Amino acid sequence: MNRKLQSVFTLLAFAAGALGLCAQAPALKIVTVDMEKIFENHFKTEEQSAKLRDAEQQAQTELEGMVKEINQVGEQYKEAVDQSKNTLLTADARSKAEGDSQKMLEDIQRRQNDLQQFRVNTQRSLQQRIQNFRSLLLDEISKKVTEIAQRKGATLVVDKSGPTAIGVPTLIYADPSYDITDEVMAEINKDRPATPPAAAPATAPAAPTTGAPAPATTANPTVSVPGLAK
Q1: Residue 53: pLDDT above 50?
Q2: How large is the C-alpha radius of gyration of the chain?
Q3: Dist. CA 47–CA 96, nearest whole Å
Q4: Which residues make Cβ contacts (< 8 Å) with residue 126, sequence separation at least 6?
Q5: Closest CA to 217 of 122, 128, 132
Q6: What is the pLDDT of residues 27-37, one digit of tens each?
Q7: Which of 49, 94, 112, 218 is deepest in the core (most CB within 10 A)?
Q8: What is the C-alpha separation between 114 and 89, in angstroms, rounded?
Q9: Is this structure's pTM higher than 0.70?
Q10: Euclidean distance between CA atoms 157 and 30, whole angstroms
Q11: How far, in Å, CA of 180 to CA of 188, rounded?
């Protein structure tokens, strides 16, 4: 057989095989979903945000108690320093006051280190809780999205919530009729508990809009011991 004809027949055979594979593949049906919107409006996100606010408030109360104790020891330290310099006292009394003030200073420094470690550990713990919750809930949401998409016969789901690495939307345009976000939200939140979480106090921060619950930033109580780092 002529080599050119053989090559043509080979190409035709490959083309026929490719067409056969295409014919067997299901028709492409795409649906879109806003994962961030679902996450933010999930009843479990609301519950978790309330729990994080409570945990942060408890930590803040404990922090204020620790600072109060440091300041109390600080007052005693200042009195001891004054006594160590008081010429009306005997040398032994001044020496004892100086020794007491040194011990108090060491105690204050130890307490300050504990205070700083408490702050770091609390922040780390809250952030870890946020990350764990986010991971678990997004996995749960993804399963529900997949279930609904398969029910609709979709072959591809596109998340339209976030930008790409160059800052443009992941989805430029899609017919709204292909969006299943509201359907997923309705199905997820039908399991919302009958009794909603207690409303946050007026001083609580607004719900985060970044797609994850986050603890509020609170002011640190002031340590008022003179000559020591705050």
Answers
A1: yes
A2: 32
A3: 56
A4: 52, 55, 56, 59, 215
A5: 122
A6: 889 999 999 99
A7: 49
A8: 35
A9: no
A10: 6
A11: 12
